[in-house]
Amino acid sequence: MATSRLRHTFRYPAENTSDDEDLPEALDEEEQDRLITALRAENESRNGLYTRVLLALALLCALPYVPALLHSLLIAVLALTSLACTAYTLAFMPSSASAPPFATAAAAAAYASPVERWLPVLNAILCGLVALTSSVRGSGGRGGEGGAWMAFVPGVLYAAVLLARREMRAVDVGKALEGLRYGYKGA
Length: 187
What we know:
- The chain has eight helices and no strands.
- By secondary structure, the protein is mostly helical.
């Protein structure tokens, strides 16, 4: 006989039969594929939304440095360069190849290009230079106008981008769900 039965765990009969309705049905291959495709599309759209929000935040953070070009050219140029590197990292570097700054030699060897290899490290150095130069000059280089917080904006934004990219990379829906497939075939 070519018939086979799907085994279920034994449960005592309950007084109300609604418990059986709460249990999910077994999915065949096509339903599994549709579910995985839908979850993958939802994950990609959510990652795209986070990327756009962080890019808009980088642009918004760059706005206070434009007038600062008149007061302290060095700090403003370093900060704008760091924010541009952060935006480039977020928009154009694949998140699967990103690594935290100062990665080990083995992790750095996995990069496809020198830009992907060295940009995170150079951006971290730029963030440190902005904070150091601003603290040496005092008050963000703006003469006591309350711009001391501006020294840390590129570093905080870069840390937020690295954290967001790590979290987006950690959720790989396709790879995680492919391992959970079971061999139940539909009729």
